[in-house]
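Contributing new complexes? Match this layout with flavin-adenine dinucleotide.
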Amino acid sequence: MKASAFAYARATSVANALELLTAHGDKARVLSGGQSLLPAMNLRLISPELIIDIGELAELRGVAVKEGVLTIGALTRHVDLLKSSEIAAHAPLLTEAVAHVAHPAIRNRGTIGGSLAHADPASELPACMLTLEAILIARGPGGERRIPAAKFFTGIYETALGPQELLVAIELPVSPGSATHFFHEFARRHGDYAIVGLAAQAVVRDGRFADLRLGFFAVGDRPLLAGAAGKLVDVAITSGVLSGALSALDEELDPLEDQQATPAMRRHLAKVLLARCVSALLGRPDLLSGATA
Amino acid sequence: MTTAVAISFVVNGEHIEASVLPRLNLADFLREYLKLTGTHVGCEHGVCGACTVRVNGDIVRSCLLLAVQAHNATVETIEGVSDSGEIADLQSAFRDRNALQCGFCTPGMLMAAQDLLKQSLSPNRQQIREHLSGNYCRCTGYQAIVDAIETTVRTRAGRLP
Ligand SMILES: Cc1cc2nc3c(=O)[nH]c(=O)nc-3n(C[C@H](O)[C@H](O)[C@H](O)COP(=O)(O)OP(=O)(O)OC[C@H]3O[C@@H](n4cnc5c(N)ncnc54)[C@H](O)[C@@H]3O)c2cc1C
Ligand code: FES
Ligand code: FES
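Output block (do not edit by hand):
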């Protein structure tokens, strides 16, 4: 199917994009990579009256590290994230996660800002933002807002962004040198949206977790930073402690039913991922008994 | 405001000026305006890969790119890379290895395969599969396609299969 007719404006600067958004708000849509917007328009799920193309705003592109903060412009493409040596050095979880976002031809156009603004609960990057404690920077008619990732995702395809706001950049604290990470997702085909996934970062000291952040995706209407991690920090992990964390995770989950999986299957897979993650990060294969997918 | 927009870009080395409606995607522009019908259209939502072309050197889905977004860009289609001889060896490997039947997916497969071979001198079968994971073939099965690409990797490395 084809998109219905719309008007088109190529933004010439961030200020120009914001003027257009202020004037047209609800009736307009921002176009960055187009890899989620154009399929939705081609399927006639949405028919905006005006498309504001921000694709040429070089000021929104690129990765920089300064004083312990990694700043990523909203228009930075998935392929640029994947190839960035700064991200590989300072947020290696993100490098690993991006390889699971769609397919090469799609990663050549899709952007981090588009992925976060789109907020598909099955997508990888929103969960990484929770895990890595990102701050999302939005600019609107009233100036700039800094929104912690934990407050940004509010539902299926819903975020804290207003209709007149542009997501301009993402800030991540540089991962401590002592941090390790775990990323895994179950998908039907490499590059497809996850059935269930986990993006985790930890600091392990003397065989225990000094810190553990667990960002699950495709387990509900938004990414979930699992509170169950609390059961695993600063304690000696036994299989009993792990089962306690698995039950705590089960209580937090509210998985959706779709063509790919039932809620029960998603609960099961999320628990399998948690067990695998703990076992992998601690180098403890003994913790894996019973954790088969 | 839903009026036509002037665009200017280079397709297979040729300068093109046109005036297009914003809703027209690049795949349809190539096929209907330029009669470059080697770029195929299957799903129109990015899933099948039949419409893969190169824009500024990167492969993209031409069904998910508006023609107006290609303004000032350099576009290369299957016709361009065939005529220049860039993928002649890949094409003969596809023929030799029975990597195509109806040929619907083949232009997209060739564009994706050539993209991988430009980035990596000796990809293994797993890497070939991953790079082609976004391209559907309904006839041949993927084994023969991976075989053909693997053969090309070896011939390009100067080692005969
Ligand atoms: C076949 C296929 C498979 C895919 N598989 C995956 C997958 O496995 N995982 C995954 O995460 N994604 C997947 N995607 C989606 C892809 O990753 C997109 O790149 C991404 O979700 C959207 O980014 P974009 O830059 O293309 O945004 P666009 O499509 O341009 O925009 C998406 C939405 O965000 C809004 N928006 C964009 N930029 C901004 C901004 N700066 N400020 C405010 N609003 C903005 C738009 O208005 C629109 O509503 C897939 C896409 C396809 C076609
Ligand atoms: S037609 Fe473009 S990906 Fe299927
Ligand atoms: S050869 Fe027919 S779809 Fe691939």
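Reviewers usually confirm one structural detail per submission. For this one: Strands of chain B lie at 5-11, 14-20, 52-55, 58-61, 74-76.
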